[in-house]
Specification:
Layout (H helix, E strand, L loop, with lengths): L7 E6 L23 E5 L5 E2 L1
Antiparallel strand pairs: 1-2, 2-3
């Protein structure tokens, strides 16, 4: 991960397994559509994810 600007990690998800996606396995991703990721809070209320 390379941040776009200085900031603080606000949220993090690192635990979604890497899978070979097929429509038959779609239910494994329910509620996790973005997979692993993080949200960075920046000055002036900006956020990146």
């Amino acid at each position: 991960m390379i941040e776009s600007a200085a900031g603080t990690i606000k949220a993090l998800r690192d635990g979604v397994s890497d899978i070979d996606y097929t429509p038959a396995r779609a239910s494994e991703l329910d509620g996790k559509e973005c997979g692993n990721g993080l949200v960075i809070a920046h000055d002036q209320g900006w956020e990146t994810q």
